[in-house]
């Protein structure tokens, strides 16, 4: 800065940086794809494939192929019309180059090429180009192949046209994510791609989507003539449905389309999948509001009209009616108003009325034409209403007045002294012996301990009223501070980490599974926000020395144990030490004893702290819900009433187990 000039005086046009072309995307990638980790990486595939889906929605494509290449790239092919290739009047480039290098260029604005599209902002292809080390685009039109190549968003091999093409029409985009942007990983997950393809095939009737993994040879094809009806059937797989029949309606209103499929099952949870232009909107929006309004009104009107609700009885609430409901809502509209680029919520107010009207009219017809199904639905909701009323008093007793007032904490909870949630941890411990060691060995400032007595209730098979009669679960709910049911509030959570600390045997794993079922069914947000962990206590201790000189190396599985022993033995051999092969392996390695921990109760307070509770040394496994549908299916199968499904699952899994790896 020149002498005598203040910072304010120095601040001029030279300080202002003008970002050109795709440069803003590379500087702030998170603004466009959410993150540069696993989710952001896979969002690249979605942005490209969604363009092909838009061609299918518009009726111009019926096949899409996604291929994970051996060299780390991804190729997305479709047999649509092909991106236009003529010179664009505004940029002077081919239209193909324009849509791949200019933000907000595409056929999704005003009177563009699509009446309905999932790519609202028109930034997808160009963003992927900007974040790719290399991209190759080929368009097949008019018997010719049109090709252009890019590196980090800039053209490296200019637009060319050659005679002949692989198919009558279509587009092929191949890209390689830039490792300087995606530093965490550039390796694509086949399961993610498979799930994405399956969902899109459900949402677009009559489209074939193929997924190929050249790295492993894995291949799958998805085609569902039934569309979202097939989707509902899959979501209810493994559950006892009230009727095999699935309600389905598809109606066009003005330039909008409303498509709904629903079916009830005998569980206590709701599965609702709302989509707008094939984009999942997990936070709902106006289409969900319209659906719930129409569903609730129609069921209550039917129940009143047919004497299934007595005159003095209150109307069934939304919570009563959604118990056991599985539904998919798909709306298609020309100008969707999503909240942000991630499109989690639909804001178009007119859609509420459209969906409400369709549900009220056509679900009303369905109930009138299917009285047996209608009666079962009303009876299930009425039973839920009675359970809700029975649970109210118990729930009010559970919910605390405030997060840290200490007035309603369970007596057996050994709480921590800190009131800073970000540093507080709750260890849910199996058994009195382990709980005693945990209480003695913990850091009482930040670590709380809640003992469990026996196995908690299987909440997959229990309504809220029955669950609140279980003392162990009530203690857990009180300790967490978030409430339950309609009064659940994540802001009341008293601990940043909730750690399941159970034995590494069958009973311990069963208890952890029961706890996981409870959180998944009643507090999924606690898992989704990353607060749930599994402790991983060691299975072995290798002991060297005695008394104050005693030292223990802790190992967490058989493989780690063998690697440690081999390492120490080879080290001794390298130093010229003679090895007595007749001795046990741990003695050959220079240890005086080997300990096998059958359970947490075998550890004293010092050992439990050192191995499982000390943040410096412990191993915690964070629980994520990567695929909510798959998780729902697994919980329903393993914890539900369908014994045959569980038996088949166990038998199928048993074939993959190597008995030599089991420790009896």
Brief rundown of the structure:
The chain is an alpha+beta fold.
What does this structure look like?
The chain is of the alpha+beta class. An 8-stranded mixed beta sheet has the order 5-4-3-6-2-1-7-8. Strand 14, helix 13 and strand 15 (447-452) form a beta-alpha-beta unit. The chain is globular. The protein starts with 6 loop residues before the first helix and ends in a 10-residue tail after the last helix. The model is unreliable at 11-19, 400-407 and 659-664 (pLDDT under 50).
H/I helix tally:
22
How many domains? The number is 4
What is the C-alpha radius of gyration, as a whole number of Å? 30 Å
Helix % is 25-40%
The computed structural class is alpha+beta
Approximate strand percentage: 15-25%
Kindly report how far apart the N and C termini lie: 74 Å
Output the CATH homologous superfamily of the largest domain: Histidine kinase-like ATPase, C-terminal domain
Give the mean pLDDT: 86
CATH class of the largest domain: Alpha Beta
Low-confidence stretches: 11-19, 400-407, 659-664
The side-by-side strand order for the widest beta sheet comes to 5-4-3-6-2-1-7-8
Main beta sheet, described? 8 strands, mixed
Quaternary state of the chains: single chain
Give the second-level CATH assignment, the architecture of the largest domain: 2-Layer Sandwich
Which helices and strands appear, and what pairs or packs with what?
Blueprint: H1 7-10, H2 23-27, H3 30-33, H4 38-57, E1 63-68, E2 74-78, H5 95-101, H6 124-130, E3 132-141, E4 144-151, E5 154-163, E6 170-177, H7 190-203, E7 208-213, E8 219-222, H8 228-235, E9 247-253, E10 256-264, E11 271-276, E12 279-280, H9 286-305, H10 318-321, E13 325-332, H11 349-369, H12 371-398, E14 425-430, H13 432-441, E15 447-452, H14 464-467, H15 471-480, E16 497-501, H16 506-522, H17 524-528, E17 532-535, E18 540-544, E19 551-555, H18 558-574, H19 585-588, E20 593-596, H20 605-613, E21 620-622, H21 628-639, H22 643-654
Parallel strand pairs: 1-7, 11-13, 14-15, 14-16, 16-17
Antiparallel strand pairs: 1-2, 2-6, 3-4, 3-6, 4-5, 7-8, 9-10, 10-13, 11-12, 17-21, 18-19, 18-20
């Amino acid at each position: 800065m020149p002498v005598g000039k203040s910072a304010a005086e120095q601040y001029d046009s030279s300080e202002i940086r003008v970002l050109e072309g795709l440069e803003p995307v590379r500087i702030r990638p998170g603004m466009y794809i959410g993150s540069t980790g696993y989710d952001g990486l896979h969002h690249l595939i979605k942005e490209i494939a969604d363009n092909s889906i838009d061609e299918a929605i518009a009726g111009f494509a019926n096949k899409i192929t996604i291929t994970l290449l051996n060299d780390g790239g991804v190729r997305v092919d479709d047999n649509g019309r092909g991106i236009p290739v003529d010179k664009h009047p505004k940029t002077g480039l081919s239209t193909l180059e324009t849509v791949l290098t200019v933000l907000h260029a595409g056929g999704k604005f005003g009177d563009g090429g699509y009446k309905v599209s999932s790519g609202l902002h028109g930034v997808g292809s160009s963003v992927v180009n900007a974040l790719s080390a290399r991209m190759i685009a080929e368009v097949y039109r008019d018997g010719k192949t049109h090709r252009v190549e890019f590196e980090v968003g800039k053209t490296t091999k200019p637009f060319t046209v050659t005679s002949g093409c692989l198919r009558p029409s279509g587009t092929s985009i191949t890209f390689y994510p830039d490792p300087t942007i995606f530093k965490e990983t550039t390796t694509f997950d086949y399961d993610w791609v498979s799930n994405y393809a399956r969902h899109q095939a459900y949402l677009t009737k009559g489209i074939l989507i193929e997924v190929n993994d050249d790295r492993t040879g894995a291949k799958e094809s998805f085609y569902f003539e039934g569309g979202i009806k097939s989707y509902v059937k899959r979501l209810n797989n493994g559950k006892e449905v009230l009727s095999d029949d699935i309600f389905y309606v598809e109606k066009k209103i003005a330039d909008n389309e409303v498509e709904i499929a629903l079916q009830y099952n005998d569980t206590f949870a709701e599965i609702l999948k709302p989509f707008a232009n094939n984009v999942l909107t997990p936070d709902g929006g106006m289409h969900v509001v319209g659906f719930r309004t129409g569903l609730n009104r129609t069921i209550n009107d039917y129940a009143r009209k047919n004497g299934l609700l007595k005159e003095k009885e209150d109307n069934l609430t939304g919570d009563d009616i959604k118990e056991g409901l599985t539904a998919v809502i798909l709306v298609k509209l020309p100008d969707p108003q999503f909240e942000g680029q991630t499109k989690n919520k639909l804001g178009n107010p007119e859609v509420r009325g459209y969906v409400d009207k369709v549900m009220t009219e056509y679900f009303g017809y369905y109930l009138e034409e299917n009285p047996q199904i209608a009666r079962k639905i009303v009876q299930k909701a009425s039973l839920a209403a009675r359970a809700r009323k029975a649970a109210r008093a118990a729930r009010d007793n559970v919910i605390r007045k405030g997060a840290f007032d200490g007035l309603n904490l369970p007596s057996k909870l050994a709480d921590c002294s800190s009131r800073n949630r970000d540093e507080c941890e709750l260890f849910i411990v199996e058994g009195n012996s382990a709980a005693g060691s945990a209480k003695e060995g913990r850091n009482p400032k930040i670590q709380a301990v809640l003992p469990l007595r026996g196995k908690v209730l299987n909440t997959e098979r229990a309504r809220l009223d029955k669950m609140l009669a279980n003392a162990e679960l009530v203690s857990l709910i009180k300790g967490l501070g978030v409430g339950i049911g309609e009064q659940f509030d994540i802001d009341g959570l008293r601990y940043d980490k909730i750690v399941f600390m159970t034995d590494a045997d069958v009973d311990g794993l069963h208890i952890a599974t029961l706890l996981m079922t409870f959180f998944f069914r009643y507090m999924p947000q606690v898992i989704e926000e990353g607060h749930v962990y599994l402790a991983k206590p060691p299975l072995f201790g290798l002991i060297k020395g005695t008394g104050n000189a005693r030292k223990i190396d802790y190992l967490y599985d058989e493989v780690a144990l063998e690697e440690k022993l081999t390492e120490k033995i080879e080290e001794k051999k390298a130093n010229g030490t003679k090895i007595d092969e007749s001795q046990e392996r741990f003695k050959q390695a220079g240890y005086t004893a080997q300990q096998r921990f059958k359970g947490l109760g075998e550890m004293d307070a010092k050992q439990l702290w050192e191995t499982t509770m000390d943040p410096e040394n412990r191993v915690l496994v964070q629980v994520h819900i990567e695929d909510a549908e798959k998780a729902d299916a697994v919980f329903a199968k393993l914890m539900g009433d369908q014994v045959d499904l569980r038996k088949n699952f166990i038998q199928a899994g048993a074939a993959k187990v190597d008995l030599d790896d089991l420790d009896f």
